[in-house]
Amino acid sequence: MPPMDFSYLDGPLDVTHRHAGPDGWEESTGSISGRSLLGGAANVASVSRAGAVLGVSLKVLDPTTGTWTVWWVDAATGTLSPPLRGRWADDDRIRLAGIDADGALCADVVSAVTATSARWEQSRSTDGGRTWTPEWTMAMARRSAPDPDPPPAGEFAFLARSLQVEHRRRARRGEGWEEFTSVHRGATLLGGAVSIDEVGLPDGGAGMTFRVRDAATGSWSIWWVNGGVGRLEPPVHGRFGADGIGTFVGAEDDQLVRFTWSDTTTDRPHWTQELSTDGG
């Protein structure tokens, strides 16, 4: 059976990079450190090369179709790339393809996955997929000793810990409110420019939040992923003010959504979601 998920990235792996440069192939060393979320239906991994962090990948499974979607966050810009999509095949390989920001086709292939190693290759096509040019390969090998987790950083460092969450939300059926508790586990990556967390849901499932800070503007984009659906919901965007309150707004269907974070310097941070159907 194929691996079916990306748990082979969990923990540190040493990497040999081969990258196409102006004078031919360039080789360097680096590392990958990933973590699985949503029971293996999502994976977030930080990738470094030659001592510098290149970025973070987010991989999310659609449980209905078995299709994985992969996004890349470039460390230099803090922006999300166009997605690649694909499925694990019977030959223990996965090919993920999509259209890059410059209009070229891009494909990633993961193969030779074992308990201690894996191989990744990225190719591009500028002729509609008739020919493909390899541009980057990574040969990965499991490291025996794990790296220590980096300390929490950035504006969402207050969420990089385990917390008990007391939820109060509008009842899904009938009138009034419903209350439940769950557990939150969070972390920061890219020196605090990426924030992730996983939280339990009342039906026994789980969801995760993926936050990315734009390096040029300092604004955050925040996506929610329900583990039972397996896709990024429409994002909200915003920032923290001088008063320490974070306000993030986005559009979903025919309404506006606003997230507000407050009390973030206390041991009981508070989050509120509000909806508007009259333009705010």
Task: Characterise this structure.
- By secondary structure, the protein is mainly beta.
- 0% of the residues lie in helices and 56% in strands.
- The chain has no helices and 19 strands.
- It has strands spanning 11-21, 24-37, 42-49, 52-62, 67-74, 84-86, 94-99, 105-111, 117-125, 133-142, 162-170, 177-189, 194-200, 206-213, 220-226, 236-240, 246-252, 255-262, 270-276.
- A ten-stranded antiparallel sheet has the order 6-5-4-3-2-1-10-9-8-7, with no helix packed on it. A nine-stranded antiparallel sheet has the order 11-12-13-14-15-16-17-18-19, with no helix packed on it.
- The mean pLDDT is 94.
Short structural summary:
With 280 residues, this protein is mainly beta. The chain has no helices and 19 strands. It has a ten-stranded antiparallel β-sheet with strand order 6-5-4-3-2-1-10-9-8-7, with no helix packed on it. Strands 11-12-13-14-15-16-17-18-19 form a nine-stranded antiparallel β-sheet, with no helix packed on it.
Arithmetic mean pLDDT: 94
Structural class: mainly beta
List low-pLDDT spans: none
Strand content: over 45%
Largest sheet: 10 strands, antiparallel
The strand line-up of the biggest sheet is: 6-5-4-3-2-1-10-9-8-7
**Count of individual beta strands:** 19
Bin the helical content. under 10%
**Helix-strand pattern:** EEEEEEEEEEEEEEEEEEE
Q: How far do the termini sit from each other?
A: 50 Å
Gyration radius, rounded: 20 Å
Overall morphology: globular
- Number of H/I helices: 0
